[in-house]
Fold this protein.
Amino acid sequence: MSKWIGPVISCHEISKFYPVGDGLFALRDVDIEVEEGWFVAIMGPSGSGKSTLLNILGGIDRPSHGEVILKGRKFSRLSEDDLAVMRRTEIGMVFQFFNLLPELTAVENIGFPMRLAGYKDKEISERVQYLMESVGLSDRQNHYPSELSGGEQQRVAICRALATKPSVVLADEPTGNLDSARSKEIMELFARFNKEERQTFIVATHDPSFLDYADLVIKIRDGEVIERSDKHGTLI
Amino acid sequence: MDFSKLAVTEVRRNPTRTRIAVLASALAAMIVILLRIIPEGYPVGIAMPERTYTGGDIVIFPAQSPLSSAENSALVLRDWQGSDWQSQILYYFPDIVKTGYLCKEECMGWRAMVPKDVMTAISDIPNVKSAYSYIALPCLVNTGDAIIPAILRGFYEQPAYPLEPYIAKPGNFFSEYSVEDKEAIIPKQTKGLEDLRAGKMLHVTIPEPKVTEFVSQGGKVSQHIGTDWENATEYSLKIIGTYSIQIGEEIDYEAWSNSSSPQPPMIPVYWNRPEVLVSAELFEEIVRDTCSDFDPKYLESFSSLFPTYQITLTVDNMSRIRETTRLVREALGSDYGVYAVPEALNATSSQGHVVMPPDLHKLFSALIIGFSAIVVAGNIYIVVVQQKRKIGLFRVVGATSKDILQYVLTLVAYVSLLGTCIGGVLGNLLYLLSFLGSDMEFKTWFSQALSDFGVIAGLSVAVSLGIGFAIAYWASRLPCSEVLSRE
């Protein structure tokens, strides 16, 4: 398999305009380039456009203007179904409210994207087993989401996002619904997988603790990038 | 990934919602089945004198088929070349002698029908109970004072429509010795026959009937029954009673003009057709006696092979007679005129004294089916809308439109099929209650219930899948970002 050289994901002059009232720009001319294996933190207050940016990067929302490119593939040229198929293997998503399928067990939830992507049962079983052990949920395999705590549900959601070893993991306020102890666990999990599997993480948050792990910090306000820096605060 | 399996799991793990959705589908299926309870016909007692005298509920003539405004084939106007004794068509359509009748160019026209052919063509139609030929010959009644033209009719006794109420007392209906005693019942209102009473003898002259075959205008071989008065036979029949069929009443203008009352006096109107009734068995014997060179094929089975110009059908359930008449009409085609007796009465202005109930069945059907469709559509919509968030999530983890479609259609089909089964059983059980209070046979009910079930199940699943497909299509295009951002 040939290796992709260059930014794993980038966006150019992304704008998102909602024609409500006098019109509202959720994002305006955002340019980002993220290299493979980076841990990116997108910081900003509520309503600043973080979630919109993540949705556009994940191909589940379309920009009003601009282009997103994932490993050389331009999103604007892909249909909704093409984007969905691409997400199976290239993008994993983690949400604030976990969004697990309530009728599936933890194991089934994690294996779900792998089944969609066409993995064999043995591969699914091995990968799910590995992930559950990694996040300390081996004893919770056959529990339904309603039988798990918030932290456990988020760990299952992270495992699901990582199951197909996607190029990019997008996390939208992953600790927003957890206490500080559970939040730290999640952050450490992200950091571990970032190192071990060289996966790229883009995390939208307003939790400053993430800064310790980030290779790149992007600050957004009112839909515009106001600052780019490394984890030491050095402007880029 | 098997999205069908996932949909079934989803349905099972949400029992409350599933129960409500299934209940709504069941209700929709049930009320569609219960449509059958709404009468599609006429009240039981409507046009009873005519039905009794004609001998059934539906009358079939070999011409004068009802024409539809949707008719698009060439029509021709033909003269009616029949005789009054052949059938009762002149009672129902008295103008046919003057105006003729419109029919399709290829129609066979007025001819004698073979009862067996008609019975074979309509044998599968539900609600048809029995069929009878109108068997008659012209005759001359010698009263001693005068020779009165009349019609000798072989009368089939029908338990559902007894003639007794119309027989003047003292008098009887045919006894078990009707053939040996040559019993006859004569019309009380026929001019010249008024003085004849039960117990007296009736002297009649009957021509020899001759069946002739001819090639009709449609190119098919048909029959006519002719009469040969030169080979007439005289019979002496024993009068056992007289009858009078009152078909309505009218204003007696003469009496009113001499009266000071504001209310007009009414006088009864009788069916004054001069039919001398003998039992069907006696009629058959008379025909066998009088025919010297009759083709034996017509006499092999008199009731099913002897040609006739009128066939009457009785039905199991009068409330379904409109539908039954339509089915008989479709089965026989345009060579036959098929009418429910009340409809035939209503079709002619001179005899239109029957007040026809409005045909609300179609309106009710449309309302009920519309209502059911809305229930099913609403039900499906709610089920799918509740899945919006999940569908958004499916999209995020990589489900395509096809996957979503498969998921939603399985969900919808499961609920609809289960609901239809429950509704079908409940609807048919309720329908059974209406059947217990009707004159329908169990076998008829059961076959109707089965066919209803098949049709409703098919329709319900088809409608659900149709609506489900539209909703699934919509669902598969839901912007998942918007869906997932809500909590």
Q: What stands out?
A: Strands of chain A lie at 9-18, 24-34, 39-43, 65-70, 73-74, 91-94, 168-172, 200-205, 216-221, 224-229.
